[in-house]
Amino acid sequence: MSKHDQARRAFLKGAAVGAGAVAGLVPDALAQTQPPQSETPAATAHGHGGGHGAFLNDDDAATIVAFAERLMPGAPGKPGASEAGALPYIDLALAGAYADLQDFYRRGLAALDAFCRKTHNQRFTQLDAARQDAVITALEQGKATEFTWPSAQAFFNTVRTHTMEGMFADPVYGGNKDFAGWRLVGFPGAQPAFTPADMQSRQPFTRTPMIGLQAQAKGPTRRS
User: Fold this and answer.
1) Model pTM?
2) Which of 132, 144, 168, 185 would you label with 123, given CA atoms 20 to 30 Å apart?
3) Which helix (H) or strand (E) element contains residue 185?
C-alpha cells in the first residue's frame, strides 16, 4: 500500500470516529438543492443487477466500487470499502432512505464518465489507480469539467460520506460486513454489558461478540 493510500485510510478512519460515523451519519447531500426543472435526467431508472440490484445498474455499480475503494483502499488484514460492503449499502440506501438522491447519482456518475472520457479516453473503471486518484482529486478540488448539477465537489463529498457510512454504520443497513469497519476502529457496537476493565481500558475493544441492531431486535444475546 502506498503512502498516499495509507494517508487516505488514516483520514477516513479518524473522520469516522470524530464524526460519530459508527453510530450513523447524516450526509450533507440531503440538504442539496434540486436541479433546475428545465434540465432532463442524465439517465433513466436503473434496473436490477447481480450483487446489487436495488437501484444501481452493473456499470454504475462497478464505478461506485472502484471510486469507494480508492477512497478507502484495502490492505492485507485491513478491509477496504469493497470488502466492508460499501456498494450494497449505497445501493440499498438509494432505493430507500436516500431515494431523493437517485437523480443526483445518475447525473453525477454520467458527468464522471464524461470527464474521464474527455480527459483519458476511458471510463473511470478502466483507469489505473494513479489516474483514478487524479480524477478523484480533480473532483474534490472542483476542477473536473463536465459537471453542472451536482457540482464535482458535491458529488465527491456525497460519495465519500456514503462510503464512510457503508464502512462504519450498523450492518443492518447493508454495509459494514461482518463488522469490518467497527473492528477497524475498535468500536464494540451495542454490547449487552461492559466489564469494569472494559470501562477503564484505553485500548480498542476487540472482544466478540460485536452486536448490531438486527441482533438486538431478536432479543438479548447470552455470553459464554
Assistant:
1) 0.71
2) 168
3) helix 180-185
